[in-house]
């Protein structure tokens, strides 16, 4: 069994004239990331690794989650190739994961995340929002062989009461 948890980076700031990769989180994004992180703890597998895009907003989101779920920040794996908006590239990266790992939490970007979720999940989601959390379980022991999986949990900031 393989499990992927896809988390779209939290809301970022457009205020400063920065390169896209350097945009930080805005205040609302920081709040939403903490909110979702606290509410996802019971939905996490017992063991997992965290991968993140190197984009500042994705890395900051991953750090906020790591702090809330008590995951060592220095164990977060920054993968340059996760700075992508293309679901085919995202699929290729996920399918290249070592089978030693049963579960991966991945912080990345849209439209790659929404499109991946709709290709591999069993529930259509029009748009995974910023700080959105989607957990998909696959009935296989090989990342390379993942096919349509079952969405086990969806957590979106606006849906948390």
Helix content: 25-40%
CATH superfamily: Phosphoglycerate mutase-like
Number of helical segments? 4
Give a count of the beta strands, DSSP E runs of length 2 or more: 6
- Structural class category: alpha/beta
| Silhouette | globular
How many domains, in number, for the residues? 1
The CATH class name reads Alpha Beta
Radius of gyration: 14 Å
Task: Give the termini separation.
Answer: 31 Å
Strand content: 15-25%
Structure description:
The protein starts with a strand and ends in a 6-residue tail after the last strand. The protein is an alpha/beta fold and 161 residues long. It is globular. The protein has four helices and six strands; from the N terminus they run βαβαβαβαββ. The protein has helices spanning 27-40, 56-69, 87-95, 112-120; strands spanning 2-8, 49-52, 77-78, 103-108, 133-138, 150-155. It has one domain: 3-Layer(aba) Sandwich (Rossmann fold), CATH 3.40.50.1240. Strands 3-2-4-1-5-6 form a six-stranded mixed sheet, sandwiched between helices. 35% of the residues are buried.
